């Protein structure tokens, strides 16, 4: 045997004689994102190794070094490795994003709001390179065809559109052509299930023959039933006054809207004195014709005895009734003829 080979074998023999299994360090396992690169599994005391952060982690402090001690244990591992962060995931329009964290190996899931369908991956994972495994999905609206239009009806849509495809939430309002009346849902929308809400029904509504009114007349009205939205017109001869609408319409309930009445004029029931009518002071004998129309006002003059001054007291005609204010005292015929300037209408007015 050659001398060099003999020397090498003796050195190896001496080495194995001094190292025992009890003081050999085993390969440190991966821990908290750090690991040893390489394939060696056993290390002699005094051996120094260099740790690295595992794939998907980055160093954040501490020492990369560890030394095998004489008792077969490693010095304290101080290398700190933290997982890489991915960018905050985008929330899809008309959808939601759900996650607890956005670091390596974290998962994000997506969902869509009612009426929208998810197009793309429902989940994504944060990869070791700080990127997401899948792009965010999109939430596409549910589509409907065109709504059913019942007989005698039409739809006024929310906005113009083209083609025969509509999307979730789009809608409009039904209208019936008079004299038909709408019964059911007035509004229609494309639903989350891809179907339109139930359409209404257009039914014929008729109002009875319009009634005649006392002291009044109907203009150009036939004695027949009238359909929804049809109108008739009422009037009153002079001096009666129409109280209420001139035009009366057949409503969707099958009844006429408010029917007017003809209100009668009033007569001023004093014999002597002055009245105030339409801003003018008039002696009652000059008030011709003695007539005040319904809802018009007049004033008679009353006396404030304590202050010896006059004041107008107003009263209003209502359907042929005009009540004289209680404060009014009709003067005697003698006073009226011989001393008219002493009447409440002629003396100083109370301030």
TrEMBL record:
A family per Pfam: Sushi_2
CDD domains in the record: CCP
Occurrences of domain Sushi (ranges): 23-83, 84-141, 142-204, 205-264
GO cellular component, one term: extracellular region
Localization of this protein: Membrane; Secreted
Annotated signal peptide: 1-21
GO-annotated molecular function: heparin binding
PROSITE patterns xref list: SUSHI
Cross-referenced InterPro entries: Compl-Cell_Adhes-Reg, Sushi/SCR/CCP_sf, Sushi_2, Sushi_SCR_CCP_dom
S-S pairs: 25-68, 112-139, 207-250
Record key words, sorted: Disulfide bond, Glycoprotein, Heparin-binding, Membrane, Repeat, Secreted, Signal, Sushi
Function: Binds to various kinds of negatively charged substances such as heparin, phospholipids, and dextran sulfate. May prevent activation of the intrinsic blood coagulation cascade by binding to phospholipids on the surface of damaged cells.
PANTHER family in the cross-refs: COMPLEMENT COMPONENT-RELATED SUSHI DOMAIN-CONTAINING (PTHR19325), LOCOMOTION-RELATED PROTEIN HIKARU GENKI (PTHR19325:SF575)
Protein name (Swiss-Prot/TrEMBL): Beta-2-glycoprotein 1
């Amino acid at each position: 045997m050659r001398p060099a080979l003999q020397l090498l074998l003796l050195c190896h023999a001496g080495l194995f004689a001094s190292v025992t299994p009890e003081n050999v360090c085993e390969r440190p396992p991966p821990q908290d994102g750090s690991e040893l690169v390489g394939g060696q599994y056993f290390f002699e005391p005094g051996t120094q190794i260099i740790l690295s952060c595992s794939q998907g982690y980055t160093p954040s402090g501490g020492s990369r070094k560890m030394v095998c001690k004489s008792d077969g244990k490693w010095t304290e591992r101080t290398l700190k490795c933290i997982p890489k962060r991915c960018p905050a995931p985008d929330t899809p329009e008309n959808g939601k994003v759900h996650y607890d964290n956005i670091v390596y190996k974290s998962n994000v899931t997506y969902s869509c709001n009612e009426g929208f369908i998810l197009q793309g991956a429902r989940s994504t994972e944060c990869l070791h390179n700080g990127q997401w495994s899948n792009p965010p999905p999109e939430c596409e609206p549910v589509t409907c065809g065109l709504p059913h239009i019942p007989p005698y009806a039409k739809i006024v849509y929310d906005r113009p559109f083209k083609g025969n495809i509509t999307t979730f939430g789009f809608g409009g309002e039904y209208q019936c052509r008079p004299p038909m009346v709408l019964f059911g849902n007035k509004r229609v929308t494309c639903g989350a299930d891809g179907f339109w809400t139930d359409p209404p029904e257009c039914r014929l509504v008729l109002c009875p023959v319009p009634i005649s009114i006392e002291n009044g007349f109907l203009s150009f009205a036939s004695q027949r039933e009238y359909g929804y939205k049809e109108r008739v017109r009422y009037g009153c001869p002079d001096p009666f006054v129409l109280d209420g609408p001139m035009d009366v319409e057949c409503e969707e309930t099958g009844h006429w809207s408010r029917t007017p009445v003809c209100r009668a004029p009033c007569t001023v029931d004093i014999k002597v004195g002055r009245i105030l009518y339409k801003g003018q002071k008039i002696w009652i004998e000059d008030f011709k014709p003695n007539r005040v129309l319904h809802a018009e006002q007049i004033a008679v003059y009353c006396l404030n005895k304590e202050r010896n001054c006059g004041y107008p007291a107003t009263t209003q005609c209502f359907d042929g009734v005009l009540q004289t204010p209680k404060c009014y005292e009709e003067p005697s015929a003698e006073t009226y003829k011989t001393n008219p300037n002493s009447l409440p209408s002629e003396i100083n007015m109370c301030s």
